[in-house]
Amino acid sequence: MSSELIIVADLQRFKLYSIQKEPLGREGIVLHESADSLENHQRLSEKVSDKQGHFQNSD
Question: Residue ranges per domain, the chain?
């Protein structure tokens, strides 16, 4: 039995579907995997912090 996969992707999300035959002969789509990559679109200041105070503003 061959399996067909459908990959749906946009800038932040990836989804993996497969096509399976139902008992009555119809084809259905089943979601197997869903992943979000929202961290790729964050600003650097949202990912890291300067809690130690090494980089203070110079006035």
Answer: 4-37
